[in-house]
Write a structure and sequence with these properties.
alpha+beta; Thiol Ester Dehydrase, Chain A; single chain
Length: 149
Amino acid sequence: MTDSLNKDQILKLLPHRDPMLLIDELINIKKLFSATAIVNVREDSFYVQGHFPGQPVMPGVLIVEAFGQAAAALTAHGIDKSTYENKLVFLMSVEKARFRSPVIPNCKLELCIEAIRSHGKVWKYKGEAFVSGKKMADAQWSATIVDRK
């Protein structure tokens, strides 16, 4: 398997579409273990205009969403396609989320994620978010794979 995915490849793995598909690339993939997601935070990103006018910041909840998307892409890329077909990955819990510095537009947000464990259809992950090597946020979360209706 490739050790990186571009946006077109991510679109084939995730149900998310613009404007809610937040990750632009998945690199440094270690199958079912870890990867780095790239989120290009732009001035024209949908959340910038209203959060906050004059001093735009990427909302923390969207950083957590991007963590979840990166984990879903890592998992979908690593498991057998027949296992993942007609399935969705849903966030179950978010733990220990910390936001250390605001993420402002015109930056490349790097999300370093790791699968901590899996038990059946439930997976647990952890991640750290960086801009230019500075830690901006970190979290742990759980997700489950369910049948698409």
